[in-house]
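User: Quick sanity check before I run a bigger batch. Here is a single chain. Can you write out its predicted 3D structure?
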Amino acid sequence: MEVVENPLEAPISEKMFKSAPKMGSFKLGDSTLSSMIESYANSGDFDSVEKLLSRIRLENRVIIERSFIVVFRAYGKAHLPDKAVDLFHRMVDEFRCKRSVKSFNSVLNVIINEGLYHRGLEFYDYVVNSNMNMNISPNGLSFNLVIKALCKLRFVDRAIEVFRGMPERKCLPDGYTYCTLMDGLCKEERIDEAVLLLDEMQSEGCSPSPVIYNVLIDGLCKKGDLTRVTKLVDNMFLKGCVPNEVTYNTLIHGLCLKGKLDKAVSLLERMVSSKCIPNDVTYGTLINGLVKQRRATDAVRLLSSMEERGYHLNQHIYSVLISGLFKEGKAEEAMSLWRKMAEKGCKPNIVVYSVLVDGLCREGKPNEAKEILNRMIASGCLPNAYTYSSLMKGFFKTGLCEEAVQVWKEMDKTGCSRNKFCYSVLIDGLCGVGRVKEAMMVWSKMLTIGIKPDTVAYSSIIKGLCGIGSMDAALKLYHEMLCQEEPKSQPDVVTYNILLDGLCMQKDISRAVDLLNSMLDRGCDPDVITCNTFLNTLSEKSNSCDKGRSFLEELVVRLLKRQRVSGACTIVEVMLGKYLAPKTSTWAMIVREICKPKKINAAIDKCWRNLCT
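Assistant: Done. Predicted structure follows.
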């Protein structure tokens, strides 16, 4: 007899049955056919499954529902939802197999797991609510799948309706039902409703799992409501529900979002003492939080603590730390960490290399950065557009324009596609050294190949044109920006400041004021540079400070009338810095706006942040 070497093959070879006339009257039975179908399905051999199904249909054999369910699951693993739906419809007519809620749920699960949520809801409605007389009543799993699909589609109110209708169908919600609905509510920022569901769940005698607590804790953390998070964690312990690594990671992330890094580090220690092992997410979250607060040195100390516990650092953590150290001006520590990374045998990836190139360029060392890029290519790690753009920017920053252009040309050698950011860097660099004609050629090429310039690219070329006094050409590009549908191509405060400075340099105050009015009408608030541009121009025109004071004060009043308090406060700060105190009536307007109930806390928080920085 033939030996079956592959364990995934059918338990009995079909060849044996083909030779049946020579061996006697032994015949392939229904149960064996079912077994073979299941085996072929589990191994992903769907051609053999179809052949066997055709044979079963022709010979009027019987196949049980369980075998179909195995095939449905196999179709799901192979991402073939259409095949699963088709076979479900063939079950009765072709194979005389009665469909139950089990096969229905199997197919529904395949559809929804593929992310075809609308299709899943249509399938449910067709089977359960149509006049096809399938006699399939949904059970708890069916409702859970429908609620999941509705929540994924952000139809949370419809999901709640289904949830409330479950008892009428004699189905009680379980932990998965509540968890899915809570997650949907949290994603819609309806946290209070989600927390009320927890109370309802417990009153119905359904014990919440750590997963449910994690969903609510995550929602409250993202909202910044750490007081309620603390109460929820206390409730979790009271119910005998032990926090897992996801719980701790979520809490640490919430504390980092609120800037409470010391508490986050303390929670890490508690996590370790609770014998809950921190993972990449835990350390990555903490280090990201410390770096964002410009505490990269503390993050390096945490890194040492991680190593003492035997934790092996990954490229992501190294890249975050190296970038953070460079941004804080601690280049030596960053390079030390880079060397340490190599000593530890952690091979740098494209992100780490790019961070190092960018950091060295920030320090005014583009030649060293170029050496790193060459080593990067030699090691088989090809630079991306971000890497090359950082190097070009570094060369332009140190006045090495030709070297920057050479980097642009070298991109072709590695097959790196140039994006709008690369073009913006080159255009800005060329304009910065007065090579505006070349910049315009690059601009034209960018448009020719179909790359739409963003705000940075527009602002760069406008700055170059203003620099050579071509204000009409600059304003023409500005009006072109206004016609763009893409928000990322609209003028921002930088664009306006460039144009305002150019107009003021040409003593064209009336056009500058018109542009400022347009800026205000488009919802763009002036900043410190805007204010200083007009103050300098007005002071040159008049020896007195009164014109500048009146001009800025009028801006403050206009912004306050439009409920743009933040912009108004910025201008007042500039005025106070120049010893140009606003009138009493203006102060009264500012105080009245700031002290509105919804704004007072935000204003206090801003004051504290300014005092602490």
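Residues 546-561 form the longest helix (16 residues).

User: Great, the batch can go ahead then.
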